[in-house]
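Illustration: (rape) hypothetical protein.
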Amino acid sequence: MGGKGWFLLKLLMFQGLFTSRLQDPGFDFFYFVLQWPGAYCDTKRACCYPTTGKPAADFGIHGLWPNYNDGSYPSNCDPDSEFDPAEISDLVSTMQTKWPTLSCPSNNGSKFWEHEWEKHGTCSESVMDQHKYFENTLALRDRVNLLQILQDAGINPDDEFYDLQDIKNAIKDGTGFTPVIHCNKDPEKNSQLHEIFFCVDTSGTEFIECPIIPRDRCPSKLQFAMF
Ligand code: AMP
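Result:
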């Protein structure tokens, strides 16, 4: 190959390297995690309502978490990228209703969102900046009306016990996607519906079937706590 040929080949190889770097987000998919406030609060540790008042009796957002296909996940990827409330000032009132903090002492939510951004959001900065990260997560929440889906299937937050399989089937039928369910325990040691995991593609906008199916962390019968 002549000098010109080599040059072109090297240019193409360099370009290929560059584009594959650009296309590789550095993780394989997101978990989008919703939380039932009744279960977060009904534990020995209890909870504190945000300074803005008791959240609605509805599923809230826990987070949008980059993950790898082997089950591990990156965290705290960029200590220089601090949470900046000013960047999301237009989203804050929606976040207060859809992404409510429940930790004590009572606070306005910034601490929870800061934790989620710094631990998880900074690991998907190749795809979304801070504003887009919160905006996309809120948009995902709007696309699954989980409480309605469960209630339509006769599954209500009434302290009754329900079959895990019935809950999963209702969510699969209502959303098209199989969820992963996590439980926690109330002070009497009853397992209760706590968090629902969905998988989302690396753009942070489209639900997908989970590339890996972790086991549900719940017994076959679980309580759906009142809130
Ligand atoms: P993560 O580190 O993203 O896996 O989330 C776990 C942390 O988030 C724990 O410290 C939890 O106590 C906290 N957490 C979970 N849900 C909430 C909530 N609704 N409000 C405040 N903190 C929360």
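Reading the tokens back as a structure: The helical segments are 3-23, 37-41, 92-98, 110-119, 130-143, 146-152, 164-175.
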